[in-house]
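Narrative summary of target 7.
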Amino acid sequence: MKTSIFGLYSLAFFIFTCMSCSTETNLFSVQQDIEFGQNLDNEIQNRTAEFTILNESLYSDAYIYLYAMRDEILIAPQLNYRDRYEWELRILQNDSLVNAFCNPGGYIYIYTGLLKYLSESDQLAGMLAQLIAHCDQRQITASLTALYGTETLMQVANQTASSATMNDVLSNMQQVYFTKEQVAVANQLSVDFMRICKYACNAAALYLGALNPQNPTWGVQGPLQTSIAEINQRATDYACSTDTWHSTGDNGDYAAMLSTLP
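Modeled conformation, tokenized:
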């Protein structure tokens, strides 16, 4: 899968794990998480040559669809920061990037390439549930701290980082890996979130399964299949519905939303 040079939170990171990473450490406060995410969001919005954000007014149908999906997930009682994080959605125009990411503090970015690649609404909902789980568990700043160290990230959060430091952070975000334990938590929470929604409660497994043909090098015996198995087992344990909304109630709404994209 291709990732942007600002791969803050690439889809690949859902499945690839760092087996030798040190114990999770997060020295950021929740407020610093929020400030860090706000500063990164400002950087993305200012880098118009790299990131084309679709205007919410001009593409209101797509945003309304995605926000409705987000709101269903945010009902979940397991969320820690439903009311503190922004949970802003931004659609990035680039059909060649099958990707999505989330900044600390709940800033979510989805490329048009991913929206058009996924064929069912449940797959998209599963992806969004995993993004929200990783972000709500504050795993992003924990992972970035392990990669860059606290001092560098504090400079970014406090807007005191030099341009060279900021460029380095932005250009190397794709090196962030989640630990096996972090991925397992996000897998479980994706089912916890989805079981009270209209979408299949194993929707994240459907999403990950959809990625496999796009990425045959992500081996069948690797972390991707492990995540799929964990999600499906969680759904079995809950005995929750795995019937897809796409087949039972979508009535072409997902396709209609896609048709409004450039």
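The mean pLDDT is 85.
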